[in-house]
Amino acid sequence: xxxxxxxxxxxxxxxxxxxxxxxxxxxxxxxxxxxxxxxxxxxxxxxxxxxxxxxxxxxxxxxxxxxxxxxxxxxxxxxxxxxxxxxxxxxxxxxxxxxxxxxxxxxxxxxxxxxxxxxxxxxxxxxxxxxxxxxxxxxxxxxxxxxxxxxxxxxxxxxxxxxxxxxxxxxxxxxxxxxxxxxxxxxxxxxxxxxxxxxxxxxxxxxxxxxxxxxxxxxxxxxxxxxxxxxxxxxxxxxxxxxxxxxxxxxxxxxxxxxxxxxxxxxxxxxxxxxxxxxxxxx
Length: 283
Fold this sequence. Notes:
The chain is of the alpha+beta class. Helices cover 38% and strands 24% of the residues. It has helices at 4-17, 20-33, 64-70, 96-110, 112-117, 181-186, 198-210, 216-242, 245-249, and strands at residues 39-40, 55-58, 75-79, 89-90, 124-129, 136-150, 156-170, 177-178, 192-194, 254-257, 262-271. The radius of gyration is 23 Å and the shape is globular.
C-alpha cells in the first residue's frame, strides 16, 4: 500500500518527467528536424489493422555520425502508448533510443559547432507569438544542491541533488513581474505566429542578458525555495519508505544550494501585434 506522502511525490515526479504524449512529441519533432520524419508503417495484409498503428523510425538517410550516436536498428517500427504489437517497439521515456536521442539533442545544443549545423534545440531564442500579450522571458535553470546530514556513526554525509527550474517574467529585468510556475511552464506550448528579424532577435536577447544582474536576488530566493522543497521531499520519501529510521540515522538534514544557479537557456516571447487572436470557441 502506497503512503499518501509517497504517492504525492510520485505524482509530482511523473508530471515533471512527462508522459506518453511528451515522448511522442519529442521523438516526432526531433526526427523531423534531423530530416528523417516518422512515417506510418505499412498496414498488415491480413487481419484487422493494428491499434495503435506503428510508425517507422528510419535512420538510413541520416549521416553515419548521427546513426552511431542514436544506435539501434536502422529501421524501427514504434508506438508510443498501449501495448506494442508484434514486431513493434513501445518507446517510453527510458527506452535506450529515446535516451540517446535526448542526449544527442542536448549535446548538440551545448556544442557551438554542432548547434550551428543541427537546428535541433537552442539555448537562446526569440519567438513572436500571439500567445502572449507582452514581452515575456523564460529562463531555464539548473539547480545543484547538497543534502547534508550524518551517517549512523556521526560522520558527515552529503547527497548531491540536481533539478531543472523554469522561471518566467514579463517586462524588463530590472522591473520584472514574475509569473506563477504553471504560467511559466505553459510557455513551452506557445505557437510561433511570425518571423523575427535576426538583428532584432539579437537585440532582444542582449537586453535580457545585460539585465541578468538585476535578477540575481529574485533568482537566489527562487533556487533557495526549490532547494528547501527538495529537502522536504527527500525527508518525506525517507520517512515513508524507511519508517523514519533512515531519516533519523542521517541526523538533522540540511540543504546547501550552489549559487549562482546555472543558466541553461533564455527564451524571449514577443507579442504579435499583427496577428488576430482566435475567437472564443475557434479551433
